[in-house]
Design brief:
Elements lengths: L5 H6 L3 H4 L5 H14 L21 H10 L4 H5 L3 H24 L1
Length: 105
């Protein structure tokens, strides 16, 4: 590259000389042609009658998961004595941790 001078570069073809020149109208007409020739595709719609309904085989699992954890304190109080005691112990531990956290702030 060191032995090339300005005359060598002046003899090289310029990109603009070889690139096709389009007017704005030609450019727009190319887009119009492509949009007119594209086929119209209709949207696919589901024909399933069970759309949005979970399979029956999952119903038992959903029921089991729903009943394992009470959503409020009243539901917890209706649990058997052993389960109720576990929930109360866990709640007391959370209160102690929260109080410790608040003291460190």
């Amino acid at each position: 590259m060191a032995d090339l001078d300005d005359r060598t570069f002046s003899q090289l073809p310029r990109l603009a000389e070889h690139a096709p020149q389009f007017t704005e109208a030609q450019h727009a007409s190319q887009h119009d042609v492509s949009s007119r020739t594209s086929p119209t595709v209709s949207l696919r719609r589901s024909q399933r009658i069970n759309k949005g309904i979970p399979p029956r085989r999952l119903c038992c699992q959903a029921e089991i998961q729903r009943k394992t954890e009470p959503s409020c304190w009243d539901e917890m109080e209706r649990l058997p004595a052993a389960a109720k005691r576990k929930w109360i112990t866990a709640a007391e531990e959370e209160v102690v941790m929260f109080e410790g956290y608040m003291r460190t702030r």
